[in-house]
Design brief:
elongated, alpha+beta
């Protein structure tokens, strides 16, 4: 209610300005937001595509190093020469009589190991027997291989199968001379079967820097980060050395990601998180790229575009306000004149001249005021003559057509004065009175009867300040069928007064032709009736006495539902019937069946 009051207090000039602002601003804002969203989404996809291509390149280089590890592991696992020497040494290792022979075999194994490594990437290779004897391609003064037996990860590989490779991951380097420049190694292990009861273990390591060098080479941006992480989220290698061996906090998003990328908060900023799996294990390459750097330019462009639009909008708004003020100045003046007329000053005039719409409106308004003054003077003169005659005689001499013409004239004047609602009410009253006074024909078309009902409902809504809505569901073939005049109005009036308690509600009027009968249904959503009240109403309809029944002076026609039933029964006889159904709080439905046989319904 407050919103309506606020809206109605605005002048036409203010409404025009607000409407123009909304019509210009809202589409511009919606277009800007939608285009920004679409552009940003496309930029995100392109950024992710570029990152994925980089990760594919990195994956190829990293995989080549890991393939070397696997190659060495497979070579040691399946090379007959090395396996034979290991088995022989395992049986003869404690035979002092053959020390020279054993030394020669040990040298052969060591040389073979070094030859393997020399043709591949730099490796640290260890073959460790269960009794503590070992073969290495590095000096044992750098590291004692028996120390592997005390490490936690070494204890887990003894239970692994002979065909599986154990990816240990990253750990501090065990080569003393390399600890300063190469602090970390990446290691794999494998079990070698020497006999039914004896095993040997291969430990193959590469410098972590070999992987991080690949990551740094792929990084063209200082703010971008590349990482290699294992299945548990431990960072195995990174172009940021400080992150190695730390836990990657967003590993759960890699495991559960629904799309090929996600946006995470990293180091207090939004980053693209894109992952790419390696071929041989559950390790993943991860790229973190600042979101703002990849798509931030579109936000800058959008912001600049928005500022430019606002500047143009402000200039346009100033021009719009100026033009609206100039164009609505006559209307504003006319509004002030109407307020003076409202106060009772009928001498004011707009004195507009010209052929424009507003000028024509002002001229018509001035002319209307002149006519109103003339009508007031004429009414005063007529009032003096009317006082000389009795009211009953005056009413008896009224010409119905004069009454209709006067009502239409008043409706026209009221409509011209801007009160269209009151004009429509007078039109409805005029149409309703015309239908009641015109007795030349007892039958009218169903369409005319429905129109009469609509006029009546408009007047009832005005009288009781209610809101009753008529909903038509009429078959087109029934509109021109002739029915008795005013047989629907009492039914509608009964629904409004008793069904709705003179308040609001819906009434559905349906019509169709069924089995050569005109079916008319009237259904309301009012309070309904109990079975007892419904039975009493049906019994009273059958025994009503039209001659002795009192006329309801407060209603429009003075007749009720019982009269309608008896009237239709007299016209159509036993072939007519009416059914009434009602439920408490659900409403009442009346079904009327009128025969359409030739000779029964005239002029159908």
């Amino acid at each position: 209610m407050k919103a309506n009051t606020w809206r109605h207090t605005l002048t036409l000039r203010q409404r025009l300005i607000i409407s123009a602002i909304l019509c210009v601003f809202l589409p511009s804002l919606i277009t800007l937001v939608v285009s920004n969203y679409i552009t940003k989404d496309e930029l995100e996809k392109r950024a992710v595509t570029n990152i994925e291509e980089t990760l594919r390149y990195v994956e190829l280089n990293v995989t080549s190093y890991l393939e070397d590890l696997i190659y060495v592991s497979n070579y040691l696992q399946f090379d007959n020469k090395i396996n034979t020497l290991l088995k022989e040494n395992e049986h003869q290792i404690y035979d002092n009589s053959k020390d020279n022979l054993n030394a020669i075999k040990n040298i052969k194994i060591t040389n073979d190991l070094r030859n393997i490594i020399n043709i591949l990437s730099p490796f640290y290779l260890t073959i460790l027997l269960e009794d503590g004897f070992s073969y290495t391609n590095y000096s044992k003064t750098e590291y004692n291989p028996n120390n592997f037996l005390t490490l936690d990860w070494f204890k887990d590989i003894s239970d692994s199968s002979y065909n599986s490779i154990n990816w240990i991951g990253v750990h501090p380097t065990y080569i003393k001379s390399d600890q300063a420049k190469e602090p970390n190694l990446i290691t794999i292990t494998r079990t070698l079967k020497l006999s039914q009861t004896k095993n040997a273990y291969t430990i193959i390591s590469i410098n972590e820097s070999d992987i991080s060098d690949i990551l740094e080479e792929a990084n063209f941006n200082n703010q971008q980060e590349f990482m290699l992480i294992d299945a548990d989220g431990v960072i195995l290698s990174s172009d940021n050395k400080k992150e190695i061996q730390k836990q990657f906090n967003y590993n759960y998003q890699i495991e559960n990601e629904q799309s090929n990328y996600s946006i995470v908060t990293y180091k207090g900023m939004d980053y693209f998180l894109v992952s790419y799996p390696l071929t041989y294990n559950n390790w993943n390459l991860v790229s973190l790229v600042p979101y703002k750097e990849m798509v931030g330019n579109v936000n800058t462009i959008t912001r600049n575009t928005l500022i430019l639009q606002y500047l143009f909008f402000a200039a346009f708004l100033i021009l719009l306000i100026y033009l609206v003020t100039r164009l609505t100045r006559p209307i504003n003046k006319l509004s002030l004149i109407t307020k003076e007329v409202e106060k009772g000053n009928l001498q004011v005039r707009s004195k507009f001249q010209g052929a424009g719409d507003i000028e024509t409106l002002g001229y018509s308004f001035d002319k209307m005021l002149d006519q109103i003054e003339e009508m007031i003077n004429q009414i005063k003169k007529e009032e003096k003559g009317k006082r000389k005659a009795e009211l009953e005689m005056l009413q008896a001499q009224i010409n119905p057509h004069f009454l209709f013409n006067i009502l239409n004239s008043i409706r026209l004047k009221i409509t011209l004065n801007g009160d269209k609602h009151s004009g429509q009410l007078i039109q409805s009253l005029s149409s309703l009175l015309r239908m009641t006074i015109n007795r030349n024909n007892e039958f009218i078309t169903l369409q005319e009867e429905i129109e009469t009902v609509h006029h009546y409902v408009k007047l009832m809504n005005f009288r009781h300040n209610g809101h009753v809505e008529i909903i038509n569901e009429l078959s087109s073939e029934t509109l021109m069928v002739e029915v008795p005049r005013f047989f629907l109005q009492p039914i509608i009036e009964n629904a409004i007064i008793h069904g709705f308690n003179q308040k609001g509600g819906n009434i559905i009027i349906s019509a169709a032709i069924k089995n050569n009968l005109l079916f008319i249904g009237i259904k309301d959503n009012g309070k309904g009736m109990s079975e007892g009240v419904l039975c009493e109403l049906q019994n009273n309809m059958l025994h009503v006495n039209l001659t002795n029944q009192k006329v309801n002076r407060s209603s429009f026609t003075g007749i009720g539902l019982k009269n309608v039933y008896q009237r239709l029964l007299l016209i159509y006889g036993n072939e007519f019937h009416m059914e009434i159904n009602s439920q408490i709080e659900k409403g009442t439905e009346i079904e009327i069946y009128i025969p359409m046989e030739e000779g029964v319904l005239s002029n159908v």
